[in-house]
């Protein structure tokens, strides 16, 4: 599928609305995510704040198929990937991968050295959910298994490593799985 990725502009009301609808639909099954258009619109509008990255993937006819955001942290050395959504009908076609690669390139251009993200498990998608992770967090992390298509494996395929877990971040037994990728190590390895 041919797509093109470009900045989502704050004056493009039609695309903002379409992206908000993608976000609400894409996260409908996630308990603490954007379940209504108002909260989804607010998230999209927040992506236009200073220093942030907001990119949309479009089909050849201009229809938005996915959206990704990036938030600077640690004085710009790190960007948080937040959020990523691809139209449910277009998942598994490389759009998410293309958006992540594009965000990495934009963050690298801005001087970032690392991309980080949190990917919650609120519904028993991994073996880290429904478990008292403390005090032996790393024992659980070392044995993590994907039970129901949790996105952490998608990010692993793109070079992200599991770097931590915030136990009970979304309530008892509902952790946030933290992942990161070095942009400078990747750049060094490809230039050698």
Characterize the structure shown.
With 192 residues, this protein is of the alpha+beta class. Helices cover 31% and strands 27% of the residues. The protein contains six helices and seven strands. It has a seven-stranded mixed β-sheet, sandwiched between helices. Helix 1 packs across helix 2. It is globular and about 50 Å long.
List the keywords.
27% strand, 192 residues, 6 helices, globular, alpha+beta, 31% helix
Mean pLDDT: 94
Q: What percentage of amino acids are in beta strands? A: 25-35%
Strand line-up across the major sheet: 1-2-3-4-5-7-6
Fraction of residues in helix: 25-40%
Can you summarize this structure?
The chain has 192 residues and is α+β, with helices and mostly antiparallel strands. It is built from 6 helices and 7 strands; from the N terminus they run βααβββαβααββα. A 7-stranded mixed sheet has the order 1-2-3-4-5-7-6, sandwiched between helices.
What's the layout of helices and strands?
Blueprint: E1 3-7, H1 13-26, H2 37-46, E2 53-59, E3 64-73, E4 78-86, H3 95-109, E5 114-120, H4 137-142, H5 152-157, E6 161-166, E7 176-182, H6 183-191
Parallel strand pairs: 4-5
Antiparallel strand pairs: 1-2, 2-3, 3-4, 5-7, 6-7
Helix pairs in contact: 1-2
């Amino acid at each position: 599928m041919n797509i093109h990725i470009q900045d989502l502009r704050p004056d493009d009301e039609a695309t903002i609305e379409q992206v908000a609808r993608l976000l609400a639909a894409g996260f409908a099954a996630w308990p603490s995510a954007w379940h209504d258009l108002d909260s989804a619109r607010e998230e999209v509008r927040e992506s236009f704040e200073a220093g942030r990255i907001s990119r949309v993937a479009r089909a050849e006819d201009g229809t938005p198929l996915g959206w990704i955001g990036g938030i600077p942290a640690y004085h710009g050395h790190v960007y948080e990937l937040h959020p990523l959504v691809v139209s449910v009908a277009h998942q598994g076609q490389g759009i998410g991968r293309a958006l992540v690669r594009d965000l990495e390139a934009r963050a690298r251009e801005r001087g970032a050295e690392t991309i980080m993200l949190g990917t919650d498990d609120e519904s028993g998608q991994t073996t880290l959910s429904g478990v008292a992770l403390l005090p032996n967090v790393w024992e659980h992390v070392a044995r993590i298994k994907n039970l129901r298509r949790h996105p952490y494996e998608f990010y692993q395929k793109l070079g992200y490593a599991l770097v931590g877990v915030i136990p009970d971040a979304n309530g008892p037994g509902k952790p946030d799985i933290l992942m990161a990728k070095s942009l400078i190590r990747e750049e060094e390895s490809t230039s050698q």
